[in-house]
Protein 1
Amino acid sequence: MKATAITMLMLTLHHMCFSSAQECPSTHDLMTSLRQVEKMLAVHEASYQQGLRSLRKKLTALHNSTVAMFKIDKNAVSCPKPEPPAHGRRLGRVFGVGHEVHFLCKPGYELIGPRTRVCLESLRWSGQQPMCRRESGFNSTGNSLASFSPAARSSLSSSFPVSAALSGSSSVLSPPATSSASPLTSSSSSSVLPTSSSLSASVRPSHCTHFLGSTRCTCDVGFTISGRDNNICTDINECRLFPLGQPGRLCVHQCVNSPGSFHCFCPDGYDLATDGRSCTDIDECETRMHNCTADQVCVNTYGGFQCAAVTCPHMKNATYIKTSPMRCERNPCMLGDKACTQAPNSISFHFLSVVSNMSAPRVLFRVSAARVLGDTLRFGLAGGRGRGHFSVQRSGRQTGTLLLVTPIKGPAALEAEVEMSELEHNALLGRYLTKVTLFVSPYEF
């Protein structure tokens, strides 16, 4: 850039000399003057660069001092970390001025004190430290605050005694948890459920804080802001938001709203599960909470129990003897007594418990022969109540399967008689009968 400026200056001087009558300086004098001008420009440029660097340093220093002056110490404007109450927990991780934290209690405990606290400008939390107090009348199987994870009942499977010729097994898949119906079991009684709280407890004033010229109002958990000036908190009815029988419902059986929360309840014969929303069947037979006699068989059902009597049948041409609690066998027939030989060689009894409206088709029971003496085995339905709901199909060379083909709405008790016949050259060698009794719960869980 300097060379270009000097060259242009030389051309200008030569042009002025040739266009005027004055005497022009010599080339040597002209070059000397130009070098002096170049040195002078270099000195001015160096001075300018030095001044620019000095100005930049001053601006940087001024910026750093300004940032340091206005830098915020987060610890200096934060409230101390609030501790969660015993048997409860705290929601919220920011403890700066104007921020909120919320408190909840575990199932079986009620919160005493504010549910929400705000960090004030004085670097103190509003209100008093809350505490969790055990609810009166709460026990390990009582009703508590609900949560949202479903509980599944384990699959039901059982078998009956195996003779030298036959064996049997059952398979009932666990049904999905759904809504309920009215109970009807041998030990059922109507449940007395609490009602929702009064209207006054469902409305409370909001918590308002003033910070930097603005007002912020909040409500406790389970309430929503309302009113013209956001000064009222109204209870949220969770049971109405998530009604029974719809996806996302809060309770499997019954939901009862309470101020700021809700409770799930189960019918008689069930305990509230650990998730607070599902119902777990009580096994009255295992816990000896039944009134069956020594001659009866206690059968646990979903929501209750049944006392079943196993007695051998009385037939005109055949007599039976009870060889086990669930099996009767025919006494030997007289030679040539065809009516006696046509009667079943053995009769087995089996009891199954299922829920209402269980999906179909579904495998209920399997009958199989431990060994085959003849050349053919046949399976079929011999009788029983509710035959339209059942079907028998062959599932193997020596196995037949009892199927539920249409859903059954409970409460109900149905019976299916599965017959297995053994033949040799189409001549009957023996008949074996399995009486399957199905106890259908009034509930779908």
Protein 2
Amino acid sequence: MAYLKVALGFLVTAFLSATVSLAHPGLGFGWGGVGAPGGQSGAPSYGLFPQFYQFSCPQAEDIVISVLEMAIAKEPRMAASLLRLHFHDCFVQGCDASILLDNSATIVSEKNSLPNRNSVRGFEVIDEIKAKLEEACPQTVSCADILAMAARGSTVLSGGPSWELPLGRRDSKTASLSTSNNNIPPPNSTLQNLITLFQRQGLDEVDLVALSGGHTIGVARCATFKQRLYNQNGNNLPDQTLERTYYYGLKSVCPKSGGDNNISPLDFGSPVKFDNLYFKLILWGKGLLNSDEVLLTGNVGNTMELVKAYAKDENLFFKQFAKSMIKMGNISPLTAFNGEVRKNCRLVN
């Protein structure tokens, strides 16, 4: 009889432990293959799964969307800024919200890196989402997951695709200024450089072209494309691939001297609508950044064919963009007892 009581005790303890693990953020278990890179079923899920907050904070995604709706209605450009924030986070130490950390005694902020300085934005929107989530579910939803949810929500609210988003990332206690300077592709990248930087993150050419399609929304500063207008190859001549009328229009926005912070839409035809016009513009010589244009003219791999395919078929682009966003969101996440769930996204606890 005593043995039976002990055995029952073990069973009850095991059941309760399993229940707590399901409800507790941070104890991430990968159910099946959900959240695998590229959305492939059966591949490792790194402890991320879409139902991660089902018990601990079931209202999390509704809270994120409610803040996004207001922020994007007020400033449509914000959708692109939040999408870019997730991208710039994942390419440095993985998707761990390191980009959100401010300077402190122990942190040199990634916000000061060359790709981020005077450029990344949307931090106040993330702060607002975090504050509302802390109110509803204290110390439960990570800043890294907020970035991933904000990127998806921004895409959807701009008319783009949705995807089943694996969750359960935790937040880093460190940042890396040097990695931010070295890993984020610069706007004047060659195609080979882009492919190399994406491969470093486990992303291939298909991911490169599909994720570049995120430039269908948003703007870029004059400083990022000035070289194409005035000195593309060090010979004081413009980039010959630029369509002539488009070139003159850009010159009026971006003078040879000064005006570095003047902005131009990445997709001037529909700058706040998530569609496939970005790829059509590249085919017409109207891609804004060198890193956009080389997808067509770089003569490496299959990027030209992919640009043409996505220009022709928006649905194909949307499907691949969703897959590649899931894959990117799986870059080296912190799970289980690694990292922490920050109370304030700008500071370690």
Protein 3
Amino acid sequence: MPLFDRYLIVDWSGAGQPVTGKNSLWACLARREGDQTVIDWIANFPTRHSFMERLEAVVSCALAEGKRLLCGFDFAFGYPAGTAERLTGRADWRALWRKIADEIEDAPDNRNNRFDLASRWNARYFVETPRFWGHPHQHAYPALFPRRPAAPTSAPLCLRLSERFAKGAKAVWQLAYNGSVGSQTLLGIARLSRFLDESGHGDRVSVWPFETGFATSFGKPVVFAEIYPSLFTLYGDDVVKDQAQVRTVAEAFGQFDGDGRLAALLDRPPMLSDEEVATAISDEGWVLGIGHRELARGMAG
């Protein structure tokens, strides 16, 4: 039996102003119809605020109709082990999410303080070796620099464990330039943390694998998970790559759920030790699909 009825796939954006098209926020909602996966909609959102309004509607509808919903977001859900303890005093992903949400300012028109916050945190928490780096060349910040700093030799390190298994994955510390994910991560975590605390739906949502472990079944009807669309081979004739990615992943997850592969992807990655599993669940998170051969079969039937 499939784990979910609907799949919301989100290509996030760290933009500082309203923007559409390439490198903006795209989302796709798909649903299961028997053995088929049907696309309900694909939409391009100019702001994170406008998307969060849609997320509220999608989650509310699924809960009202008794449907199970998987929401996949393409930003990191965690930071390298040691970050949460350094910033909050606790090796706890939720404490770090709430700290980010408390200190990130993200206006309805996408204006935000992510570079100022990263500079402030470098100066306060990472004096010996800055972690955050990268910013627009026309700006300057006291403790945030345009070039990558020396690699740290103590925790938190450059990469999470999951990123060491993902070809081409960037460090969450990088906030700007090609392929960067740091801005999306700060802004995305802040938005999801507030959603869990303020939407009224938090008690019906599980964040994988933090709250679920590497599970193959779920007690709550809505699951949020981190995804990495670059794991999938794109197909079709979409004009914008981001649009193709959300559609491809939504259709893939629907197909995988029907034939049992999605449950396998949500299960414990086979190469992880017990200690590494504990770190992923308490601190770093994991990327849905990394470390599983089932994903290599792609869209094959």
Protein 4
Amino acid sequence: MQNFLRQMGKKATAMTLLLSFAVTGVATCGVGVEKAFAREDVVTRAGMFTDSTGHWAAKDIEAAAKNGWIQGFPDGTFQPEQTVTQEQFLSLIERVLPSFTGHEPDAFIRDTYLKQAEGRWSEKTYTHLAAAGILPTGKPTDPMNRLEATRILLAALGHQSEGEKYRGTKAKFFSDLSTDDEAQVMIAYPAYKMGIMAGYPDGTFRPAEKISRAQAVVLVNRLERQIHELYPGTVTDVEKQGMTKAVSAFVGIVMDQEQIRRYDDLVSYVKKNKLPVTESFLREHFSFMQYEVYDYIRFPRFNELTYYAKIGLGKYRMTVQYYSGELGGSVDKTFYLSSMDGKTFRLIGKDE
């Protein structure tokens, strides 16, 4: 799963614009697409549109409008059945995600994923999300299809790794998805089980089917709900800062400052310096060092998309969704920590 985005790439923020036109895909009233995206003068009263009343997605459309994620066209319509492009879908996703600083993409990312967005209204969105490993595999103006949208949603939730559970499975969830197509299975199956993307009554998934504006709004509302469900508890800014500092400082010391490359040396270093790190944590994140020759997926810089959760008395979870370089591609990595005061943290294993 970690290599899927990289393989697809080889084959194939802050937005300052109102999302009213970040989900708009055609010229309106004689205004071209690029100009339409730049307009900021349309306000829809209470999220109601002249063509959304009675629509199957009316409640989702109204909720998204009230949250400020979408607005309508100058004529008061939303045009719910209009197809959404990749850049429009990414802009919508960006609106819902927690804020994160990000960093400048490397040359490989720019050449492989961002080149076609250069000079477009969506360039800042593409650049911002690239740090989080949320990257499309087509052109910005290509229609967004269900499989691509599903992959992006999994990344936005920091749950791409869920696909590993279905590697090699023979279970058939959908009549139009072959278990021989592992890449599709590892995207569709976890999203279906998590309730992110549903199948159709006839038992199909329809991976190539285009996403409409209404469907995009429904998906982004699901994304918001899933974020709250997957990352529970109230984590203060002080706790977030302490968690991030504890993990990033340890990774920095091990990989950059001390340049430790053998697991036994790492264990010895931790014990000698009496660092607040358990062996379970070391095994979960540094077991690759036990091999004579190894490749490792680059650790995050910790300014990428990060989710924090309080999962028990004094126990926390931090998930970072990021681009780990050409070797690893788009990756999510989860760290567990404990703390009694919410200021000093111990790095622990998942089951500790």
